[in-house]
Write a structure and sequence with these properties.
The protein has 2 domains: 110 residues; 165 residues, Glucose-6-phosphate isomerase like protein, domain 1 (Rossmann fold, 3-Layer(aba) Sandwich). Helix 1 crosses helix 3, helix 2 packs antiparallel against helix 3 and helix 7 runs parallel beside helix 8. The longest helix has 91 residues. It has 10 helices and 5 strands; from the N terminus they run H-H-H-H-E-H-E-H-H-E-H-E-H-E-H.
Length: 323
Amino acid sequence: MGSGRCCDQLQHHLCWTALGLYLVRDEKQPNPFFQCSCKFLVRLFSCLLRGHHYLGSAPDNVVGRQRFNGAARVWSHIHRSILFDSDAIEKQQVADSSRSQSGVRFKLATQQIGSNERNDASLLLMNQKQALTIIDSSLRANAELSVTIARESSGLIFEATRLIIQCLRMGGKVLFFGNGGGAADAQHLAAEFVGRFAMERAGLPAIALTTDSSILTAVGNDYGFEQIFARQIQALGKPGDVAVAISTSGNSANVLEGVKEARKRNLKTIGLTGKDGGALAQQADVAITIPSTSTARIQECHIAIGHLFCELLDADFGGSRAD
């Protein structure tokens, strides 16, 4: 068999094989094997057609030329259709892959969100339990301290209030001072004196030595931080006035210097302290010590005692109860 006849038969079989593949293709469910087969036949048959065209090796007999031309026409149609279908298959597969990946990402994200929500709920539940424990413990500690103070320090609170009332009735004033929370308490209590607490009454003279930033910084810069209260007591304090010193440890240097200056100028001194009382408990005329090592619990009791001062003053100086 000649090479031309073999080529003719190969072209013939390739053409009808491709046509068969084209006719049995499933457009709804593209098959990757079908796609690869089509591409292979496209390349192979196209090479054969181009080879005959450029080399002039088309069949010599009439029947061969007719088969060749018919196959070329059929192949031309199939070629375009298969290319179109193959491109469509590729696009479809890319789209399916993209949707699949998006679905996986969405599923993972949903699972992650659900997991986070469960973790958040678990964390919230855990924190709530811890918070309730802390709340219960702190309130119980405060209540126990209040009971202890009521039992052991009520007499001292009354004595301190008596000194304040005597001072105010003699035309004197009360000077409050402390650091940090003690400074805040000083301002708080001075405001209750000058304003009112629970009943309508005349304003009572009281000054917080912690509020004038110009004085505090000038004295601190020129004389040292230890003198910020002593210098003001030197300038403002008069015999018969009352100095209320607030220190949770009882050992703050500037508070102790203030008490020292107050005693030098014949002011009565009241100390609100904590723990073992520190040096303040030894220097103040009346020292009320909160028996706790917790700064927070000590400060809570200090402001409660300050409110008791105010309530007793209302009872002595007050008239009608304010709404």
